[in-house]
Amino acid sequence: MNLIDKFHHWRRRRRWNKQYRKGRWESLKSDLEANRYFQIREFLQNYASENPSILDLGCGDGVLNERLGDYQFEYFLGIDFSSVSIEKAKAKNLPKSEFESVDVIKFQPKRNYDVIIFNEVFYYIPDSEKVRVMNLLFDHLNPEGIIITSIFREGIGCWEYFKENPKLKEIDFTTVTTKKETTYWKIGVYKMK
Ligand SMILES: C[S@@+](CC[C@H](N)C(=O)[O-])C[C@H]1O[C@@H](n2cnc3c(N)ncnc32)[C@H](O)[C@@H]1O
User: Fold this and answer.
1) Residue 85: what pLDDT?
2) For the CA atoms of 126, 127, 132, 137, what is the dihedral angle to 10 degrees?
3) Which of these, 2, 57, 79, 178, has the minimum number of CB atoms within 10 Å of its CB?
4) Ligand 1 center to residue 8 CA distance, Å?
5) Which pLDDT score, from 0 to 100, does residue 88 have?
6) From the CA of 120, how far away is ligand 1's center (Å)?
């Protein structure tokens, strides 16, 4: 990243912390958002190995983990660069789960995962870092592992990294709609070729 990008990135992290402190992201727990999480859970049930290890990038305060309900996993790591959201996630004491305050672009996985999830975070990774971050994560995906990506509305400048990625094949894709016409998410599931 050049200096200007670094500055914007730093400022963005401060903004997320401020917003989590003020409760701005409590909206992620609303009924309007629920089906997005349920769709991810359905994809996990359909395509992940049994009892998988899960890496949730940009996990916020752990809403996806909570929404998994009685879905069985062996281990769950949520990372987010907002220390405020991570403190909130940790306070929930979610079983078999750990949460770590770390930037996706600095994250060095200490193990491999069966599932890697970009849930409403991919667009925040600076363009200059996207390919490098993805390649590092691919190296930490178990054989037959899956990548799940959820992106709000059209996700301009995002889907090509998945749909046109020569290393990936798409195994499912859907649009989650809501009663609000302008609120929808596209969610894809990928495997390594
Ligand atoms: C729209 S929220 C989604 C939160 C969560 N994935 C969910 O859907 O419940 C986006 C999250 O990405 C995090 N984020 C943005 N850029 C990040 C980065 N470079 N590294 C780690 N987390 C990041 C923000 O702090 C925020 O928690």
Assistant:
1) 97
2) 70
3) 2
4) 15
5) 97
6) 7
